[in-house]
Description:
With 425 residues, the protein is mainly alpha-helical. The chain has 2 domains: 2-115, no CATH class; 233-417, Hypothetical protein af1432. It has 14 helices and no strands.
Amino acid sequence: MSSELHDLFTASAPSGPGGNGAGPLARFAPRKIRTKMLLLFGPLFLVFLGLTHFLYGRQGGQIAIGLGAFVLGLVMVFFVSGMVTRPIAQMTRTSERVAKGDFHQRARAFGRDEIGLLARTFNAMVDGLERTFRELEGRARALEGEAAKRAVDQEKDAAERRRVETELRLARIELERRVEIRTEELARANDELHGKVLETRRSEDHLQNSLDRLSQALEATLKAMALTLETRDLYMAGHQHRVSQLAVAIAQEMNLAFDKVESLRLAGIVHDIGKIATPVEILAKPVRLSKTEFQLVKDHPRVGYELIKDISFPWPVAHIVLQHHERLDGSGYPEGLAGDAILPEARILAVADVVEALSSHRPYRPALGLEKGLEEVRKGRGIRYDPRAVDACLKLFRERRFSFRKEPEAAGADSALGNGQPYWG
């Protein structure tokens, strides 16, 4: 009887992993274990009552009934405990395999009761875990690939960084070597340059000393030439020197450059040097000169130019000498130049020459005095004489910032100026 019930329940139990058995009682399978127990004990109790009724009154019937009840109880205990523990044990083993990483294991569901529901829930959980594991495994492989790729990239970057660092270190060493070499070269060049600078300074000092000596020698030569003229004409004594001083003072008052002032100084010293070719009889003649004699005198600027034109002055000294008797209106000599054709230095020298000449004694007249000289240039301002030079000259004497050496004026000076004797310096 017990074997038949076992076969019945075994046949009614689900045969596959999904728990859908093909037994004849499968569709009547209850959902609760206690319901199964009631259904099992109901028939057994009826059988027990039948046997008790059949065996009651016979000898040994009670013993047999007791033994049968005991055996039947053991069978029932074994059968029921097997129904309860077998799915749980199977789920335990499956759980252990799953815990070890075997996600292909599934719990066998034996019915639609709590154990079957638990088995199906467990299987669904394992399915979810397997899917999650596969996803995590795929993601892990992707991350491993990406990590490997990044590791390769990092290794390349590290190798490139090491290469760059090596190149930079080598470049720095090379640069330091070149800087050291260049520094040594610059130090040598600096030493050489310092030596050359010292040598250049010594050369410049020597050249400057030579130039100063040459300038002094040139000036001494010019003064000697002027002195030669003065020994032939005593009335010319000091005339060129005084004209040079006044011309320099006028140029400085006009704020002319140093080179123009220096050229005026030298030109003033020898501006009448051409008179050395004029006969002494004409220079010392106490009366009015004839036309021919005056023509000889008028040629002295050209003669002076010819005498000094080959001297290598840094300024146009020879041309200043040539033009110092030219006038703005063209009435001068020897070339009759006018206006801007006359050098500015020659215009200044002309003013200084007229003022000094009229202030000094001449063979044909006594000294007319400074006021007559200033009056002459004042009347000829802008006509015969440069207006700026005249204004500067008048200002110097008016403010008493320049003066000639005083000499006594001869009687009848005014009549001497008006006697028709032309001015020729």
